[in-house]
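Title: [Solved] MutS domain V 3D structure

Original question kept below for reference.
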Amino acid sequence: MKALLMYKDRDFDLHQTLPMNEQALTQDLELTTLFTAMALEDKFLFDVTRQAILSSVGNDVDTILYRQSVLKDCLKHPELIKRIYAITLRSMELEKKAYYGFFSKYPAAILSRSIEVLQGFVGTLKELRSIAELQADKFESDGFVTFFAMLRTELSDDYFAEIQEHLKTLKFRDGVLISAQLDDGNKGAHYILRELPRSTEWWITRLLKQIFIRKKSAYSFTLADRDENGARALSELRDRGINLVANALAQSTDHILSFFCLLQTELAFYIACSNLHANLTQQQEPICFPVPKDKQERKHAFTELYDVCLALQMGHRIVGNDLNAENKNLVIITGANQGGKSTFLRSLGLSQLMMQCGMFVAAESFSANVCDGLFTHYKREEDATMKSGKLDEELARMSDIVDQAAPHTADSLMLFNESFAATNEREGSQIATQIMNALLERGVTIVFVTHMYELSHAFYERKMPNAVFLRAERQSGGTRTFKLIEGEPLKTGYGEDLYKEIFKDKEALGG
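Solution (posted by the thread starter after getting help):
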């Protein structure tokens, strides 16, 4: 049995290898804030969310739309999804409770434990089938339609009747029938459990025969009441006979357990998404399901896009931005200090990841091409342990990014935040220009936040049809609107505004 709620044709792997730059993405995009809000202090939800989002780069359009459809069903029926999730938790708790410790290595203990667990699984599987029979028509996504159809087909009445019959037989209320062969030294070998012949006599007839017919089998024997060694030997013979059956039943139990584990994992992602949806809806933030485009296209078009992590930290609605970049693979962002440039860059990276893992995004509308690689190159704070200068460190990180992006460079999105500004503007602009030119030649999409006027103005003067230039808006009095507008790069970042803001109180006091 398969859940198939994350992919059409395969299971979601909670332990798959994450991209090499997952730590940089987590730090630069502040992903821990997002994971925490989705998990609501549930470690398992946190781990699933982290794995799903960070491994999403490379998902194709069909996978994204498949998950979107499943998520929409989950948002329509949150209580029912939580009920199914609770069933998976209860099933795994049954398995944990049936632990025999030291004795679990013996066939008899393995068999007894498997019978106990499987009996519990029968109850939870029946609950799932009942939900499928009563609620399936409320769901529209391919994922849930397939899932419920599988439950109705696989978990039939005949299936449960057969399980119950096997479990009844494996309790061996009438003893065990075992065959064996003599091996070297007259030792027993090839022990095989045989099915007991089914008697068609009434139980009262069998009882009377046991009372009045005293003749014993020529090969029978009776153990003395205190014959511990004989009892131990007989127990060992029984274990040899039931060993294959015990292992087979244990494997069957593990198979059903793995189904519940997969179902729990895949539902956990959608429950975490529902948690975030409820949070943002309560804050009256806009949410939309994005329209993904094929990776060969170059598009980023959105309205009221905002930084979801900032919104979660602030606890209220924040300013969003609009952009319509069709057939563009270079976005250069300049303008006033503390005008929202870095926040915008982060909102773009977050929305790209959220779209690619099948989630809604933090915007009124959003459409973008998928990518096979998402990379960030942000300035880092001074590190006293560094053995070289900041520029060397920046160039080393850039080299690592290029190496990581090599297999899918043409379909990558790279976000730069104040990169190569650790040296003078002329040298920094030259370094950045050479790197950007090389990446653009390979078809990489670049979004670059910079204060280097020489860099931004040089690209603006080239009148590139694939480039768009944004500027952080500043009103005449110096007020930041945190809106980005299309416009030519300016020479100043209006640092004097910050100076006045910081020192205005001292000036008022005559300082």
